[in-house]
From TrEMBL:
Keywords: Membrane, Mitochondrion, Translocase, Transmembrane, Transmembrane helix. GO terms for cellular component: membrane; mitochondrion. It is found in: Membrane. It holds the Pfam family COX3. It is a multi-pass membrane protein. Residues 54-310 form the Heme-copper oxidase subunit III family profile domain. Component of the cytochrome c oxidase, the last enzyme in the mitochondrial electron transport chain which drives oxidative phosphorylation. The respiratory chain contains 3 multisubunit complexes succinate dehydrogenase (complex II, CII), ubiquinol-cytochrome c oxidoreductase (cytochrome b-c1 complex, complex III, CIII) and cytochrome c oxidase (complex IV, CIV), that cooperate to transfer electrons derived from NADH and succinate to molecular oxygen, creating an electrochemical gradient over the inner membrane that drives transmembrane transport and the ATP synthase. Belongs to the cytochrome c oxidase subunit 3 family. One of its GO terms (molecular function) is cytochrome-c oxidase activity. This is Cytochrome c oxidase subunit 3. InterPro entries: Cyt_c/ubiquinol_Oxase_su3, Cyt_c_oxase_su3_dom, Cyt_c_oxidase-like_su3, Cyt_c_oxidase_su3-like_sf, Cyt_c_oxidase_su3_a-hlx.
Length: 350
């Protein structure tokens, strides 16, 4: 009996399978790669029943070890991060090995998916499933960032006694949003348009323009990551400086990680752009959709964590009405003076 795997590596599957799924006669399917009809490829196609022929447009994947191996690598990568952050012996070596293992697992997994697309396994139904999968993944990531933003706003609007009932907490100097954060916003805004230009170029069949726009988008993403690194090394507070430091670094750090994943995804699209074309650019479409999600998250982070948080009024001694306010204001001013005269002290504590 003919099974799906019989036609798995053949473009005949796409034509015959979709025709039968739509209730058409397989003998009426147009020519495939120089063959007049699929009846020539399958002489007895008229005798094949829907149970014996590829009768659905879905992709039944072969057993693969890479999803399980990738999951294990991600699990142990977290263990490696804990070892490295707590300065265990050989923690850095373990982390590097696990990171290389994760890169290898995702690379070969991606390679297999790419080969399946070349073999004609990605029908229109399969592409719809890929789009739905990316949308669901983005929704899950959006809920994750929503939780972090909610925690930040809850702490800022209702500061607890543990942090002196003040936001930012006493001694914390907010980031000046008019400097590097604004530059990073401009970089991501520019990358939004270059990514769209790459999509429009591939829809028009101008693959060289698509490649150039993708390269420019990747460069803007790399520059964003570099500027964020510069911002981190110059901040006057660390991850352990109360809940302010932890929420700030979690929000901006996880977003920075998503930016890195995004331009790596775009790099894969550049490596395979010659195989794309109008109507054959699923990977590029999904990568650009993911990149737009990263842009949108940054808009929220910039507006709330940088602009709104950095614009909150700072107490002044003359405006204080009790001794607690005076103490908080004096301590904040002392920390500012210390940072302005000896910034190496804060860099050494990071």
């Amino acid at each position: 009996m003919y099974t799906y795997n019989t036609f798995k590596n053949s473009n005949v599957y796409k034509s015959v399978g979709e025709a039968l799924a739509e209730g058409q006669d397989a003998s009426t399917v147009p020519a495939v790669q120089g063959v007049s009809t699929t009846a020539k490829l399958l002489p007895n196609v008229s005798f094949l029943t829907k149970a014996a022929a590829p009768h659905h447009p879905f992709h039944l994947v072969d057993p693969s070890p890479w999803p399980a191996f990738t999951s294990l690598c991600m699990l142990w990568l977290l263990v490696g991060l804990v070892l490295y952050f707590h300065k265990y012996s050989a923690g850095g070596t373990v982390l590097a090995m696990l990171l290389l293992g994760l890169i290898y697992a995702t690379s070969v997994w991606w390679r297999d998916v790419y080969r399946e697309s070349i073999d004609g396994c990605h029908t229109s139904k399969v592409k719809d499933g890929l789009y739905l999968g990316m949308v669901l993944f983005i929704v899950s990531e959006a809920v994750f960032f929503l939780g972090l933003l909610w925690a930040f706003l809850n702490l800022a609007l209702m500061p607890t006694v543990q942090i002196g009932m003040a936001w930012p907490p006493v001694g914390i100097v907010p980031v000046d949003w008019t400097r590097l954060p604004t530059l990073n916003s401009v970089l991501l805004l520019a990358s939004y348009f270059t990514a769209n230009l790459a999509k429009h170029a591939v829809d028009r069949g101008k693959m060289s323009d698509c490649r150039n726009m993708l390269i420019l988008t990747i460069l803007l993403g790399v520059l964003f990551s570099y500027e964020q690194y510069r911002e981190y090394i110059g901040l006057p507070f660390t991850f352990s400086d109360s809940v302010y430091g932890s929420t700030f670094y979690l929000l901006t750090g996880f977003h920075g990680a998503h930016v890195i994943i995004g331009f790596l995804y775009l790099s894969v699209c550049i490596a395979t752009y010659k195989m794309a074309g109008p109507g054959r650019s699923t990977a590029l479409d999904l990568s650009i959709l993911y990149w737009h999600f990263v842009d949108l998250v940054w808009v929220l982070i910039f507006a709330l964590v940088y602009v709104w948080n950095g614009s909150m009024p700072t107490p002044d001694v003359l405006s204080c009405k009790d001794s607690a306010c005076v103490l908080q204001t004096v301590l904040r001013q002392l920390r500012l003076d210390l940072y302005s005269h000896n910034p190496e002290f804060f860099e050494a504590s990071m």
